[in-house]
From TrEMBL:
Span of domain Leucine-binding protein: 26-382
Protein's organism: Oceanidesulfovibrio indonesiensis
Gene3D superfamilies per record: 3.40.50.2300
Keywords: Amino-acid transport, Signal, Transport
Region forming the signal peptide: 1-21
Keyword Nuclease: no
Family, as annotated: Belongs to the leucine-binding protein family.
GO biological process terms, semicolon-separated: amino acid transport
Protein name from the UniProt record: ABC transporter substrate-binding protein
Length: 388
């Protein structure tokens, strides 16, 4: 009997020791960023921001009294590679959660796997499908920090409606991001009293859209909305600027704001409007805006690291910061580094202030940002300013 009790006590001590040991080990998270390929500029900058943010968190005592270790893999801007790396993070590295990936296509590529394996993922992708449900699949374990495409569409339509614009033409990329934008641009037009007079598709890797610009201009729209990311947005802007006669108002999407667009589009960018995060015009924020101090500190830290020299601040810059911030808030609310507890905590977070907005999530809304998290920008004298 004594021997049996002794063995039981030893097992209890061993179990307690294992819990203690786990409680002192680093919290291991995974990260998927495109550090090569077509969106490498965004992905590499995101990795640097995530590292910068975690370094500060660890210096301040970590999360739940534990440091955070991040295992990072390059998705090479390839959805197939993203899925392979997600598997490695889960099956080999044993991470608690994943931050990233960078693009909507890669996000959709890993989602089925991470949902089936119940891995919390906080994505830094622009498109809605990752958290749209329905035909796009469940999203119980999937969250994202950039505003939904539908939110950006609403911000654009609110502005156009205020300007008295009632007819638009659409030029959307043929990739997942562009087609996600097209879906919402068409679906929400009636709500704002806007008619879509014409639409064209663009290959985001092409270098000339003159034919599409001409066709759309012939429909006589008051405004043309261009929905793409990367250099193609600037190329299309130049193509419209080169058309003869009166030009429609050009509107870019929320994936465009940044120095690169101004550089590539040059004088053709003058007067172009677009929705963006508040990081693009912090000086215009009211002093009582809860985001202002967070954004200004982020800019200060980013600049101090020297990241801006190679990766100038743009609307994407804060996404990795926000993902890490939500992860920290979720773990602190959960009170434990456990996947289900973290997932449950993430979808009920309220009032988490980030660079991209103030996040208030629900089980139905795994983004938690509204149109008030965005501002409308206008290019004036080669600079981004608040649009009227």
């Amino acid at each position: 009997m004594f021997k049996k009790i002794l063995i039981t006590c030893l097992l209890c001590l061993m179990t307690a020791g294992a819990v203690d040991s786990a409680g002192t080990q680093p919290i291991k998270i995974g990260a998927l960023f495109a550090e090569s390929g077509k969106v490498a500029d965004v992905g590499t900058a995101s990795r640097l921001v995530a590292e910068m943010t975690l370094k500060e968190i660890n210096a301040g005592g970590g999360i739940l009294g534990r440091t955070v270790e991040m295992v990072v893999y390059d998705t090479e801007s390839d959805p197939n590679v993203a899925l392979r790396m997600a598997r490695q993070l889960v099956e080999k590295d044993g991470v608690l959660a994943i931050i990233g990936p960078t693009s909507t296509g890669s996000g959709m590529a890993i989602k089925k796997y991470t949902e089936e394996n119940e891995i919390p993922v906080i994505m830094t992708v622009g498109g809605d499908p990752v958290i749209a449900g329905g035909k796009f699949g469940p999203y119980a374990w999937t969250f994202k920090v950039p505003q939904r495409s539908s939110t950006a569409v609403r911000k654009i339509y609110e502005n156009l409606q205020a300007k008295g614009v009632s007819t638009v033409a659409l030029l959307t990329a043929s990739d997942g991001f562009g087609q996600d934008g097209l879906r919402h641009l068409e679906a929400l037009a009636d709500e704002f009293g806007i008619t879509v007079a014409a639409k064209e598709t663009m290959d985001p890797q092409a270098m000339d859209f003159s034919a599409q610009a001409f066709k759309l201009s012939m429909a006589g729209p008051q405004a043309v909305i261009i929905w793409t990311m990367g250099p193609s947005g600037a190329v299309a802007t130049k193509n419209f600027a080169n058309l003869p006669g009166d030009k429609p108002l050009l509107v870019q999407c929320h994936g465009i704001p940044g120095p690169k667009f101004l550089e590539l589009a040059g004088s053709a960018a003058e007067g172009v409007i677009m929705p963006g995060t508040k990081i693009m015009a912090p000086d215009y924020l009211a002093d009582d805006d809860p985001q202002k101090s967070v954004i200004l500190k982020f800019i200060e830290d980013y600049t101090a690291q020297g990241y801006g020299e190679k990766f100038p601040l743009n609307t994407h810059s804060g996404y990795a910061f926000d993902a890490v911030t939500l992860l920290k808030a979720g773990l602190e609310k959960a009170g434990a580094a456990e996947r289900t507890a973290l997932r449950d905590a993430l979808e009920t977070l309220q009032g988490v202030v980030g660079v991209s907005g103030v996040f208030s999530l629900t089980p139905e809304d795994h983004n938690g940002l509204g149109t008030d998290s965005m501002i409308m920008l206008e290019v004036q004298d080669g600079q981004y300013r608040l649009a009227e």
